[in-house]
Amino acid sequence: MCSLNFAKIIKYIEGYDFKDFFAYDDADKFIDYLYHVSPEYYNQKWSCQYGATKLVIIMKDEDYVIKIPFHGESKDNYYVGAPTSEDFWDYCKGEEERYNEAPDVIKKHLAKTTWVYETSNGIRLYSQPKCLVAYKNHYNTKSQKPFAFFWKWWKRKKRGYALPVNHIDWLNLYIDCYGLDSLKSFFETVINEDWDDDLEDRNIGFLDGRPVLIDYSSYWE
Fold first, then answer.
1. Which one, out of 69, 156, 180, 216, has a CA that is 20 to 30 A from the CA of 12?
2. pLDDT for 6-56, tens place per residue?
């Protein structure tokens, strides 16, 4: 964790005013700031992506990413999947808690928070192993036809449900790693335990040759 690149990014984070840090517009402002103070490093040593709940700093020469949760509007904000602190919910803390509560058949597929670091300006940073995100990425797998058998079973048994995960490479890799019956058991548990609300291809990925869930606290309206 204590590399030169980490020390530099912490310095820039501690130099930024996070008084208001909400999704989208504020994320773009932070990215502009980071590019302005480190033009020789941005896209060379790190880059940023964000969604509805957090900004992720991708450390190019490290094996981890750094997550910064956005502020929620208030305790009554519709992001109810995460605990609140004062007037803000902490999505990444919610993700930690959901990891601890996950059934074993799901937990073994979660990319876990590896460390939490609080900066001098009071920002909690969360780290997670750097994964290949399924969105716009392909992964070579051995299995092809087995998924067709799974799909027939799914349509017959779970007629009212869409597939929780619809990325073919992810599904085929799961079959390669754990087998067809294990995939059936996994999806049964995902539905029964209400884990099927936000497993789109930006929230799943690949780590060390296995399929993983990388964003799993989720939120509900």
1. 216
2. 999 999 999 999 877 877 888 999 999 999 999 988 889 999 999 878 899
Q: What value does the CA radius of gyration of the chain take, rounded to a whole number of Å?
A: 19
Residue 29's Cβ-count burial label (10 Å; 0-12, 13-18, 19+) is middle
Q: How far is CA 140 from CA 179, 184, 213, in A?
A: 16, 21, 18
Question: Please, what's the largest Cα pairwise distance for the chain?
Answer: 56
Is the per-residue pLDDT at 125 higher than 50?
A: yes
Q: Residue type at 86?
A: E
Residue 220 DSSP one-character state: -
Q: Which helix (H) or strand (E) holds 3?
A: none
Q: To which residue do tokens 């991708």 refer?
A: 58
Name the domain boundary from 95, 130, 165: 130
- The pTM of the full predicted model, rounded to 2 decimals, is 0.85
Compute CA distances 59 → 5, 68, 139, whole Å.
8, 13, 22
Query: What are the helix and strand counts (H, E) for the chain?
Result: 7, 10
In this structure, the answer to whether residues 190 and 111 fall within a common structural domain is no
